[in-house]
Amino acid sequence: MKRSQRSAVLFASIATVAWTVGCVEIEGFDPADPGRGPGGMVGNGEKLNDAPFPGGNDLPPAPNPDGTLGDVCDLGCESYCEDLALENPINRGICTKLWGLGIASNPIDNKETCRRLYADMLGRFPTPIEVNTYCKGTTWGNLAWNLLNTEEFLLVQRRKWSDRLLYNNRAVSIERIYDMDELATKTYGGYVAWDQFAAVTLAHPVFVRRRDTAGDRAEAAFKLFFGRPPYEAERSDLARLYALWDNDYWDHPHLGTLPDSVINFRCVDEDGVPQAALAGECTSVLWGYNPLVLTPEANRLREDGSMWSGRLTASEWEQLQLPGKILAGQEAFWEFAADDAMEQYFGYDLGTLAPDVRRELVKYHLEFKGDIRALHYAIVTSIPYLQSSRGGPDDELAWTDGPLKQAQPEVWLDSLETFLGDRLGTCDHRMPHPEDYLDMDVATPWSVSMVRQSRWTLDESDALVTDYRNIAQTLGGCPTNEAVGRFTTVSVLNTALQESYVADRCGMFDSPNSADIDTLLPDGTTPTTALSEEVAQDIVTKQTRLFLGREPTGEELARAATFSDACAPKPCTAEDFARPVCFAIASSAEGLFY
Questions:
Q1: Please, what sign has the CA dihedral across residues 473, 164, 354, 51?
Q2: Quick one: which of 93, 100, 281, 459 is 20 to 30 A from 477 by CA?
Q3: Where are the domains of the chain?
Q4: Tens digit of pLDDT for each residue in 488-528?
Q5: Model's pTM, two decimal places?
Q6: CA distance 180 to 197
Q7: Strand extents, DSSP E, 346-489
Q8: Is 190 left (phi over 0), alpha (psi -120 to 50) or beta?
Q9: Residue 438: CB partners within 8 Å, gap ≥ 6?
């Protein structure tokens, strides 16, 4: 189905396509795609940009031979940077704090960089085939563009926004969550500009339903798109535009009672006529005169005079987007978008440490019509991002080394599932509590079908497979978002759980989850092959490539030979050695950090 056709599922009154679940025909409800809301109204045209963005192929410059190695870039330093004619905005912005000062950047290690790109953009580490095929014989710009245009990249970004908006199907209608998730998909697919994404998000039931008061919504809006809480004047002023929203419930014809948002018509008299004397309660004046008054229609109202948000018209949804439109008109909105994207990839606040980088990145973002993909592309093809994190210059500047970060639980788990074969299933960020739709007391054919067609895994009796979720949640992933989202930590409990899981998957225990031994052995080696120094080194080479995407070091190969001699009881086989090696490498720090 084309994106332009997706508007057919906007509202219950519009969606008239019949879908079938078993032998039951459902009018206006698709269990595979139940989304309804304002997200379906936007991003249904052409992409903002079709061709790759510029700046993906800058070569690392040589440091300025006349650089002062100080903190201030003088005229000679500025002239040197201008003459480099760098295309990438990050490279242009950082030059006056790096090469222009005479400081060298760290060289780029192809396999290390490939692993970082896959982890950050696709949410998993690359396979040996991907390292040796897609990361060779091409430019980083071409690779980044190809990764941007994958479903895995979209999933990583959708999951990020599920964390930020705290998707929880007990607090918000599942239809609204699916709609917001589709909006994120369209945005990171290049169909929705960043300012429009913010405007729709800040008037979306997923956003407003998670907050109790108008003031809470105003505060959350600032934190989400400015990265800071509002000043009191900003909070109280923007809250007037959220005064029309309230939290309530709606009886879904197929899923039961769902939590959702309703509209209370304020600033009108008893007959629903706008009154100038009341307009101030629904008007923002801090950023110009911005009134937000909706007029009720009797045929759309509930008994208490409110209206379910599902009955809003397209023009009314657009009016309600006023808070986001106001914030998107501020320079700080675009600056935070740049800072936020850099934080995602670098792991530190480069925009504050090097303001020229932020300035160049904002210009670049706006040049390409607010396409958020432009920011991601510029960052992952910049020299500060691509450079190795190992063995850099002896300098305290963060940008003289590539980023080094802890892998999120899903990155680690999905990578091992990719390398060793899927055993656990997965979780679906849109539906933290799938069991609510499977419970015998409340389940319907439609709700069961919805879970079955989600990313959750069900067994043959439609029971939920929770192995993946249980491990991920203990490590901080697959959050239920009751009050807060995911967490990242290193602890004794986490380490014990990770080691237990790796031992189980590598076959240290007699378990049905054990990886097939052929996955762990080099070609031409069988499980019963007698262990020798050469066989041990081949096994270490195979698994280092598999799990870490690189060649083993001389020291690692020497240790493999030593440990092969120490294997007991003798005689040892290739399998006896391969499974402990799998455990050692997959649970190593290098397996958890990248």
A1: positive
A2: 459
A3: 3-47+152-328, 75-138+331-400, 517-592
A4: 777 777 889 899 999 999 999 888 889 999 999 999 999 99
A5: 0.92
A6: 10
A7: none
A8: left
A9: 447, 448, 451, 462, 463, 464
